[in-house]
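FAQ

Q: What does a record look like?
A: Structure on top, sequence underneath. For example:
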């Protein structure tokens, strides 16, 4: 789910623009409806996190296994790598899809 101002949002917006301009209404509905559901669930979870009262006794009780932290850090590093350095093979694949 892309949210402004991320590049994912811009790509989704351009996909919808192209689908609407080419009058693929069924495909627009089939893609747009699940995105609305995902957006609703995401916003509901965010509001629950932001506005739910915090039990002071609960803080500090969350302890995960060290492997969980390693995997999270690994995924962040991989995401940052692909965000900062463009993989030429992936770029060529995307260009061929666009063309």
């Amino acid at each position: 789910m892309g949210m402004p101002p991320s590049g994912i949002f811009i790509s989704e917006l351009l996909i919808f623009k192209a689908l609407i301009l080419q009058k693929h209404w069924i495909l627009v509905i089939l893609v747009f409806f699940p995105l609305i559901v995902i957006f609703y669930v995401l916003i509901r979870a965010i509001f629950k996190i932001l506005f739910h009262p915090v039990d002071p006794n609960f803080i500090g009780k969350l302890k995960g296994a060290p492997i969980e932290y390693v995997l999270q850090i690994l995924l962040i590093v991989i995401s940052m790598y692909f965000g900062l350095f463009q993989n030429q093979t992936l770029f060529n694949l995307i260009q061929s899809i666009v063309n």
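Q: Is there anything notable about this one?
A: The chain has a mean pLDDT of 81.
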